[in-house]
Amino acid sequence: MLEVRGTYLPQNSSSGPLTDLGWTTIGGYERYSSVALERIFRRKKPQLAEGIDVPELWSKCPQCGAQTYKKDLLAALMVCPTCGYHNRLGVEQRLEFLLDAGSFEQTSGSVYPLDPLEFVDTESYRSRLERAQLKTGRPDAILAGRGRILERPLMLVLMDFSFNGGSMGSVVGEEISRAAGHALERRLPLLIVCASGGARMQESALSLMQMAKTTVALQKLAEAGLPYFSLLTDPTTGGVTASFATIADVIMAEPKALIGFAGPRVIQQTLRQTLPEGFQRSEFLLEHGMIDLVSTRAEQRDTLARLISHFTRAGGLT
Amino acid sequence: MSDPLRDLENTIAALERTMRDTGADLMHEIGLLRTKFDAMRYSKGSAAESSSVPHTLSRWERVQLARVQGRPTGLDYVERAFENFVELAGDRAFGNDQALIGGPATLQGRSVMLLVQQKGRDTKGNIKRNFGMSHPEGYRKAVRLMGLAEKFGLPLIALIDTPGAYPGLAAEERGQAWAIAESIARMASLKVPTLSVIIGEGGSGGALALGIGNVVLMLENAWYSVISPESCAAILWRDSKEAARAAEALKLSAQDLLELKVIDEIIPEPAGGAHKDVDATVQSFTDAVTRQLEQLSTLSSTQVLENRRERFLGLGSFELRD
Prior knowledge:
The complex is a heterodimer of chains A (318) and B (322). With 318 residues, chain A is of the alpha/beta class. Chain A has one domain: 2-enoyl-CoA Hydratase, Chain A, domain 1, CATH 3.90.226. Chain A contains ten helices and eleven strands. In chain A, helix 5 (170-186) runs parallel beside helix 6. Residues 1-39 and 42-47 of chain A have low confidence and may be disordered. Chain B has 14 helices and eight strands. The model of chain B is unreliable at 45-54 (pLDDT under 50). The longest helix of chain B has 19 residues, at 4-22. Chain B is of the alpha/beta class and 322 residues long. Chain B has one domain: 2-enoyl-CoA Hydratase, Chain A, domain 1 (Alpha-Beta Complex). The N and C termini of chain B lie far apart (62 Å). At the A-B interface, strand 4, helix 5, helix 6, helix 7 and helix 8 of A face helix 2, helix 7, helix 8, helix 9 and helix 10 of B.
């Protein structure tokens, strides 16, 4: 089972749920406040009144309102011990929770975005990129490298939702292709942890083409008989769902993650009616046969390790 | 000669009647058409409908031309450029999508497999065709027909004309994203030549699902983008009326996409747009498609697959730093 290594402190505070939605992706939820989402999905209101001075050592669950000692919340992999709510994770925290301690060797980071369309809306794309790069310390919305899960080596790709809503532009497409190439070269299984609003508008058709590019890169991996797993986390929508995220050999999802093609706002405008409870959530997709399993954060390492063993034995891995 | 503005007004009125009478939910479509109507009214008298200044059309004006009533739809090309078309229906799992149709046909004596995104030619047609917006079963039918093309060695020709895949509850329930991803993946893996032609609207993933061509062609006034100008404007400017600005920013015209290497060739349209002379448009289409197909037929099945892969792996814009 899972051991928790030391006391890990989050490196940024953006891992809280629904705090970072000011971004510009096409999934359609990006302008949702948590209030709106609560209304749509009828989340229970927090039981404590707003404005109470909560000491920083404690964290309040956005779903059930329970107060948890932050150290305990970390030990529980940022899952609320009261209601099981999976708080969103930053990329570093995800890495820490998923991989064997100290096993990560980064391979991404040399690919930087350009501004091929000289895109300007209310702000220039260049300035949006600079802000996101400063905030995350990454060239773009992705981190990739080799690592181990319960001693099994693998290639790991993590999408960073805090960078431009995890949107896929040319850099995300290129890094995924490179990661697939790297996995192929070393005969490693590949895991992509998805968190994205979809394709990035500011690179327009070039972003759209990344859906094709990533698909082609992953097909080469498939032809070599190497397994590809995707883990869909909250939220995964738009062009990412309609390309590499859903062509995996095994599709896993975290509990209650929002996963879909069109965002709930777009669908609501289409239908002019309230969406059913749980619509586009992991459990809904499992019921409809769209994903293989819903896996809690505590189970993920064990499940992945088993799958890797099952699917790589023929390839000579132990 | 019909007045496109009046036609559109009539279409909207008819849709509103249909919605009242049948209870069918058409709010989304009506909204789209109203936006279009406003934009057309705004630009009436400017270059959009004038035949004298085709080269100065703005991107937004081209978007409107791509949507204008009377523009040749997929079936217009099928009927005029191809022979012996046999429509094959169904995804063998759920249903038969009417917005994406297909089957074998002959082009200049050679059998090909056609996949066609079809909009209605009038209000009734648009309701039947769901305005060219497919549900998952459409893409699954496409995947099935791609398999037949490969099995029998037929080159695949896909005609793209969709505002986007349908963003509705049932579409999500049946796995819209999954269906599109499968279609992209299957088309990318085909060992027969594939040729995509964007004849009108190339709306996002719903268009890309059929866009994995060894060669991608585009009509002069078609548009192709990651998102429609209206939706882009609604998100970035928080106002869908800024669609004209969004169209400029998205660089969605055929000329833009040729420069970005997203497409390989522009098929010229008559002055004033494809609807001004459908025969001439179809002739240009046939010339380009036949010539491209001829070149593709010299490739071995391995080359077909590898060339297509290289084409898409090479798309993107980034720089490498140490």
